[in-house]
Amino acid sequence: MRYLARYRVTINFPAARLYLAKGKHFSDRERGHTCGLGYLFKPNGLLVEMVNPEGPAQAAGIRPGDVIVRLSGKAVDAWKPSEINQLLAAEGKPVRLVVQRDGKTADVEFTPREFD
What we know:
The chain is mainly beta. It folds into two domains: 30 residues, no CATH class; 74 residues, Pdz3 Domain. The protein is built from two helices and eight strands, in the order E-E-E-E-H-E-E-H-E-E.
């Protein structure tokens, strides 16, 4: 979605077309990733699909296949998806997670930071 924010988006529903025109933020520098996680929203938590080897989540020991069940002391289902995305992208603010792996839980903390 950040990518589309650089454009003016016009949708022509009858013709099933999407038009993009350069928006006022088109030339803005694209921010790097901040947490290094690729995840899916699941009923039991966030399923970690990808961990960037350059990111802070990797350094904290999070692995693909882990399930994040708590964020900052609250169950994942208590958060809105947009709140989770903001929390995991808040550069410089430590994030505490409870992760399930192989039937065991572990407390993990990392601080999102920009990286390429």
